[in-house]
Design a protein that fits this description.
The complex is a heterodimer of chains A (176) and B (138). By secondary structure, chain A is mainly alpha-helical. Chain A has a domain of 80 residues. Chain A contains 9 helices and no strands. In chain A, α8 crosses α9. Chain B is mainly α and 138 residues long. Helices cover 69% and strands 0% of the residues of chain B. In chain B, α2 crosses α4 and α5 runs antiparallel to α6. Chain B is globular. Classes of the chains: A mainly alpha (176), B mainly alpha (138).
């Protein structure tokens, strides 16, 4: 019995609702303990300050006074969470597998790396102009019924539908 | 609870949950946009429902914040370019099959291409800082 429960939590994939409950609970929990909004993408500004020579840029200077703020710890925690998940489910190790991208498109490594880099640049730039990402706007903002976050999420989804379907049709041989 | 250690712990929980429901899988994110797999729509939907109910309970409680401070909810205001930025973000979401949170779970899982999405995100944030020097309205 206990082994079966532990197996469910730590080894098997979770049903969607279990993940939804845990992720949704983070919003009130972070307010209760730290009076702080759930959000990930702003922390990439801390990473810019750590990894790139950007201290002369005013936005970096004023918004990220404390380089190693809680945001960096949050980012580190999420990485660690993914790591623990793959250790416990027995999938640990580096993999160049990326679902249908590697299975169907099968580009050489350099082209694939550039593809994901470009996706990342759009995510980083877009999140800052939008003022948040999936966690800050879509989970936190909608949980607080903020119209701005509902609008931003609609635009996230429209952008995603356009690019994912263009890629499915042009690179994966999908039907219109 | 120390804030940094607290966020480390909640981050581990977040990354673990993202990884367990498959939010770090390229196919699930892209499938949500192509209509082939609605798992993540369910995850986000349940998360929002739990978030709305949780925040309503918190707002009505006599002590919403543990240390007794008044609850300070941060609302993200939209600038003139925000919705355009959100569109760019969405395009990047559909290309990379990741978002700023799930790419971190991918890193932990050892997905090599997730690393390139990750450094792209850092570079995109840097680009924003550069653009903002000349265009403060961004």
């Amino acid at each position: 019995m206990i082994t079966a429960i532990l197996q469910r939590i730590f080894v098997d994939p979770w049903p969607f609702w279990a993940g939804g409950i845990i992720i949704g609970l983070l919003v009130p929990l972070l307010y209760y303990y730290f009076n702080t909004a759930l959000g990930v993408s702003t922390g990439y500004g801390n990473l810019v300050k750590i990894f790139l020579p950007a201290r002369h840029l005013q936005w970096i200077n004023t918004k990220f006074k404390e380089t190693w703020s809680w945001r960096v710890y949050f980012i580190g925690g999420i990485i660690l969470g993914g790591f623990i998940s793959s250790v416990l489910s027995g999938n640990l190790g580096f993999t160049s597998e990326m679902g249908r991208f590697t299975a169907i498109i099968g580009w050489p490594p350099l082209a694939s790396a550039i593809y994901f880099f470009i996706g990342g640049v759009l995510l980083g730039l877009g999140a800052r102009i939008a003022g948040g990402c999936t966690s800050g706007h879509s989970i936190h903002g909608i949980s607080n019924l903020h119209i701005s976050s509902i609008l931003a999420t609609i635009m996230f989804v429209i952008g995603g539908i356009i690019s994912a379907n263009l890629i499915r049709i042009t690179l994966m041989g999908g039907a219109w | 609870m120390n804030k940094k250690m607290g966020f480390l712990g909640f981050g581990i929980l977040f990354g673990f949950a993202l990884s367990r429901v498959g939010a770090s899988e390229f196919d699930l994110i892209v499938g949500m946009f192509t209509g082939e797999d609605y798992t993540l729509v369910g995850v986000i939907g349940i998360a929002v429902i739990v978030g709305v109910v949780g925040m309503q309970i918190l707002k009505r409680s006599t002590r919403p914040v543990k240390n007794g401070e008044p609850l300070k909810i941060s609302e993200k205001k939209l600038g003139p370019w925000s919705l355009l930025g959100a569109g760019l973000f969405g395009i990047g979401w559909g290309i990379s099959g990741a978002c700023p949170g799930t790419v971190l779970a991918q890193l932990g899982e050892g997905k090599i291409y997730g690393f390139f999405t990750f450094i792209g995100m850092i570079f995109g944030t840097y680009l924003y800082a550069r653009l903002k020097e000349k265009h403060p309205s961004l």
